[in-house]
C-alpha cells in the first residue's frame, strides 16, 4: 500500500491535474466509480488505478474485472487519495488513463454523419455537457479548437459522465482550416448563433445530411470569420422572456434536431 502523500510517485500522478503534465505524458485522471465502470469496457486504455481499502471492497466487481484484464491496481491510504483526487470529497478511486483523441483525417475517414465543434468554449461544465449530449444524440465526433478548454481537464472529464470514452474527440484545431476540410469531405457546416435562420425553418431533408454544428464562446459567440466559412448560420427561437439559452442547452437542441432528422431518414 502507498501511504506517503509526499512520495515522488504520488506527486507525479497528482501533477496530472495540470495541463502541461497531461500534455507531456499523454495521460489524464479519471476519478470516481462512474469512470471505473466505464474502464471495465476499455481496459486497454488503463495505465494504473489507485484505490483505498474501503473503495476496494465497495467496487470489488469492477476492480477484479480490471485485474483479470492485467491492469495495475494500487492500494493507497486515505491521505494519499486526498492528494490524488481533484474533488472535495473523494470516492476512493482514481484511474490514470491514456488520452484518446484522434486527428481530423481519422475522424473524417470514418464518414461521420453528425459532429459537434467547440469554438473557444471555456467553461468546463459546458464543454463536458456538450460532449455528453453529443454521445446521447449519436454524434460521431467532437472537435475542440485550440483555444477551447482542455478536454482532459478534470471538470470536463467529470461533466461528460463517461461519454469521453465513447465519442471520438479531436483537439487543438484551427477551425478556420478545419471547416473547409469538413465541407470538402461532404459535411455541411452549421454555425449556431443568434440572428441566423431559425432551426424550425430548416427542412428535414437538409437536417438529415451529414452535419457539423459549430458552437461558440459563451460570451463572444462565433467569430465573423468562422460564420463566413459555414454553409449557414442557424438560431434557436426563444418564445418566452429569457434573454438567451445556456450554451450546452442550445447545443443539445441543435444536435438532437439533426439526430431526429437523420434517424427518420434511415
Automatic annotation (TrEMBL):
Keyword Protein transport in record: no
CDD domains: SpoU-like_rRNA-MTase
RNA 2-O ribose methyltransferase substrate binding domain location: 29-103
One function term, GO molecular function aspect: RNA binding
Transmembrane segments: none
Pfam families, alphabetized: MRM3-like_sub_bind, SpoU_methylase
Family annotation (SUPFAM superfamilies): alpha/beta knot (SSF75217), L30e-like (SSF55315)
GO biological process: methylation; RNA processing
This protein's UniProt keywords: Methyltransferase, Transferase
Keyword Zinc assigned: no
Gene Ontology CC terms, in alphabetical order: cytoplasm
Gene3D superfamilies referenced in this protein's UniProt entry, alphabetically: 3.30.1330.30, 3.40.1280.10
Protein family per UniProt: Belongs to the class IV-like SAM-binding methyltransferase superfamily. RNA methyltransferase TrmH family.
Name this polypeptide is given: Unannotated protein
Amino acid at each position: 500500500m502507498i501511504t506517503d502523500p509526499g512520495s515522488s510517485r504520488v506527486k507525479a500522478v497528482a501533477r496530472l491535474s495540470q495541463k502541461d503534465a497531461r500534455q507531456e505524458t499523454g495521460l489524464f485522471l479519471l476519478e470516481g466509480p462512474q469512470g471505473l465502470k466505464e474502464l471495465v469496457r476499455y481496459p486497454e486504455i488503463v495505465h494504473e488505478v489507485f484505490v483505498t481499502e474501503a473503495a476496494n471492497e465497495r467496487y470489488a466487481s469492477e476492480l477484479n474485472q480490471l485485474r483479470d484484464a492485467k491492469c495495475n491496481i494500487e492500494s493507497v491510504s486515505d491521505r494519499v487519495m486526498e492528494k490524488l483526487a481533484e474533488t472535495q470529497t473523494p470516492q476512493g478511486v482514481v484511474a490514470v488513463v491514456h488520452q484518446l483523441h484522434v486527428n481530423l483525417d481519422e475522424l473524417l475517414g470514418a464518414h461521420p454523419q453528425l459532429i459537434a465543434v467547440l469554438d473557444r468554449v471555456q467553461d468546463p461544465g459546458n464543454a463536458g455537457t456538450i460532449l455528453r449530449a453529443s454521445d446521447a444524440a449519436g454524434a460521431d465526433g467532437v472537435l475542440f479548437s485550440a483555444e477551447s478548454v482542455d478536454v482532459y481537464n478534470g471538470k470536463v472529464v467529470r461533466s461528460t459522465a463517461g461519454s469521453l470514452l465513447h465519442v471520438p474527440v479531436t483537439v487543438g484545431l484551427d477551425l478556420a482550416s478545419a471547416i473547409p476540410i469538413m465541407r470538402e469531405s461532404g459535411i455541411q457546416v452549421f454555425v449556431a448563433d443568434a440572428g441566423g435562420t431559425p432551426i424550425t425553418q430548416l427542412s428535414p431533408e437538409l437536417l438529415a445530411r451529414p452535419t457539423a454544428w459549430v458552437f461558440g464562446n459563451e460570451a463572444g459567440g462565433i467569430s465573423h470569420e468562422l460564420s463566413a466559412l459555414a454553409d449557414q448560420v442557424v438560431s434557436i427561437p426563444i418564445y418566452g422572456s429569457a434573454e438567451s439559452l445556456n450554451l450546452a442547452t442550445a447545443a443539445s437542441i441543435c444536435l438532437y434536431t439533426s439526430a431526429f432528422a437523420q434517424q427518420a431518414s434511415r
